[in-house]
Specification:
Blueprint: E1 4-7, E2 10-11, H1 17-28, E3 34-41, E4 46-53, H2 55-72, E5 88-97, H3 101-119, E6 123-127, H4 138-141, H5 149-153, H6 169-174, E7 177-181, E8 186-192, H7 197-207, E9 212-213, E10 234-235, E11 242-249, E12 254-261, H8 269-282, E13 287-293, H9 298-311, H10 320-331, H11 341-344, H12 346-351, H13 363-371, H14 379-402, H15 411-446, H16 453-494, H17 500-525, H18 531-563
Parallel strand pairs: 5-7, 6-7
Antiparallel strand pairs: 1-4, 1-5, 2-4, 2-5, 3-4, 8-12, 8-13, 9-10, 11-12
Length: 565
């Protein structure tokens, strides 16, 4: 399994697209790097770049980007709305797949050392990569911004972790860079119907974890109160793991709350949006929409869509595309510019356009592909697809029931059933391609060379491994299709009576999927040598087939009882 990490460098240039392109070209020059997003901001004069790859590739690509930015960006001439202290202002590494935070910390520090040694740029390690507690906070590392950098790096306390602490001509041009390791951060701006930065800041102070300093008499102009150690007393904000400031964006002619959600498992995008809406309302201001800077995980968008659907007392057992659409409209993510999920949701960007997947074909294309001379897709993929159609029908009945007039008090009950149906539907759709892939693996194994004794052994091992997978995929289809019958049973018994026939058809499809996959289990089992495994597997498959037959019979009896023989 490949280790995949994400890198999200922020470069202090948001207007000159030529410079931005040269930087991203340098990043993409490293083989294996997938550039996911480039998001320039004119008012902030800052570009957020997102790319992924294997660790060593990411380290090299990040180094190339930092080097090119130092060549092209002069920080002594830079200005923008966003805090900054370097040409490459920040460069965080984020674990994505098969890699721990501890490993990512080591990769980040490796990059930091390389940048410091080879480029002579002062580097501060922050967040999880920090060597000192006070340097975990990016705000602490960047305090005073570029303008304070000369004095800070020459002090013993703020001496960089790597690179020079001399204010030379090169450093005056490049500034410093913060390199770190962090969890997935969502950069999120909320739009207000005001042009006042001060009022936007007041809302930001209301919600951000750091809150605001406490003043005498709670007056804006009152004396700042301190504790016994002489430190300012703070009134904490309402949202944990949240940083926020208010600013005015000339490009849009509005003020925004600029938010960094540093742990969306603690404070989600939709929770931040609703909290800002409430705090803005209390100050006589209205939220008009929002925008995402960079990318967002699919789960965050699905959670937001489900949250708003629940507030509307609507079923969340609908397609991911529809849930995402609800999230976009509810958060107003398309107010300032169009929001394309394929370009903003990280999983979709990584996946890209995969024309080879069967499930992405049209119905006609899938049927034509099945009917062609190629042996795959065959009965296994068709069984999975039929099962997916059956669970889709059960899900449809649940959604119709949740929306039925007069059944408003039961929407949550049917939403839960729709969620279950959607799970079986999605899982079975995945099996459509899995089954064809399993067949192709067997064919590839049989095609391996068998000249030497060693090659013969390797070929046999590969064939047995591929055959076992070709047994387990249809067995999984059997289990999923069998279990999906519970949705059709519930809908036949208590769902919308006008759609009871659809529940019956769903049951017929599920049973067909079980029986079809059973045939594939048995035919593939004939080529497998492990008899103990085969006895256990075939017993399980036979049990599922028998159970599915009984469940289908019960469901159809209910259906016929309601619609008449």
């Amino acid at each position: 399994m490949k280790k995949i990490i994400e890198c999200v460098p922020n470069f202090s240039e948001g207007n000159d697209l030529g410079i931005i392109k040269e930087i991203t070209n340098a990043i993409e020059s490293i083989q294996g790097i997938n550039l996911l997003d480039v998001d320039p901001g004119k008012a902030t004069n800052r570009t957020v770049v997102t790319f992924v790859g294997e660790p060593e590739q990411v380290i090299e690509a990040a180094f190339c980007g930092i080097k090119k930015a130092a060549e092209l960006i002069d920080m002594s001439c830079h200005s923008g709305e966003h805090p900054r202290f370097g040409a490459t202002d920040v460069c965080p590494f984020v674990p994505v797949a098969n890699v721990s935070m501890e490993e990512v910390v080591e990769y980040a520090r490796k990059l930091a050392e390389k940048v410091g040694k080879e480029l002579g740029i002062p580097v501060f390690c922050y967040e999880f990569a920090a060597f000192k507690e006070e340097r975990k906070s990016l705000a602490n590392c960047r305090s005073g911004e570029y303008e304070a950098l000369k004095e800070r790096i020459s002090s013993e306390y703020w001496k960089p972790d790597f690179g020079t602490n001399d204010w030379n001509e090169q450093v005056a041009k490049s500034g410093a860079t913060a390199i770190g390791a962090r969890n997935f951060l969502v950069a999120y701006n909320i739009n207000l119907n005001t042009t006042s930065t001060r009022r936007a800041n007041a809302i930001a102070f209301d919600i951000r974890e750091a809150g605001r300093v406490k003043r005498e008499g709670d007056s804006i102009s009152g004396k700042i109160l301190t504790n016994k150690n002489g430190e300012p007393v703070r009134i904490p904000g309402t949202l944990k793991k949240t940083r926020a400031i208010g600013w005015y964006i000339k490009e849009y002619g509005i003020a925004q709350i600029s938010i960094n959600l540093t742990d969306i498992t603690v404070t989600s995008v939709h929770a931040a949006f609703d909290e800002v809406c409430e705090k803005a309302r209390l100050r006589g201001i209205r939220v008009t929409g929002s925008e995402l800077v960079g990318l967002i995980p699919l789960k965050a968008m699905l959670d937001a869509g489900k949250y708003f659907l629940k507030k509307q007392q609507r079923s969340s057992g609908i397609s991911d595309a529809e849930i995402i659409k609800i999230a976009i409209k509810s958060l107003g993510l398309d107010e300032l510019s169009s929001f394309d999920p394929k370009k903003k949701i990280i999983e979709f960007v990584i996946e890209g356009n995969n024309d080879s997947k069967l499930v992405d074909q049209t119905l006609a294309q899938f049927a034509e592909e099945t009917a062609s001379e190629s042996p795959a897709p065959g009965g296994g993929s068709i069984s999975a697809y039929v099962g997916a159609l059956g669970s889709a029908l059960g899900t449809m009945v649940a959604n119709l029931s949740a929306h039925k007039r007069g059944w408003d008090d039961r929407w949550e009950e049917f939403s839960d059933w729709a969620e279950k149906g959607k799970y079986y539907n999605s899982s079975l759709l995945n099996c459509v391609d899995e089954d064809t892939d399993a067949f192709n693996q067997i064919m590839a194994a049989f095609g391996l060379p068998k000249t030497t004794e060693e090659e013969k052994i390797e070929r046999k091992i590969a064939i047995q491994s591929a055959t076992k997978n070709a047994i387990e995929v249809p067995l999984k289809v059997m289990q999923l299709a069998h279990d999906s019958l519970q949705v059709m049973m519930a809908m036949a018994e208590s769902g919308n009576p006008n759609s009871v026939s659809d529940a019956g058809v769903g049951a017929l499809c599920a049973r067909t999927a079980v029986e079809g996959a059973y045939l594939n289990v048995k035919i593939n089992a004939a080529g497998f040598d492990d008899k103990k495994y085969l006895i256990k597997t075939l017993n399980k498959a036979g049990s599922l087939a028998g159970s599915a037959k009984e469940k289908e019979k019960l469901i159809l009896e209910i259906v016929h009882g309601k619609i008449g023989d």
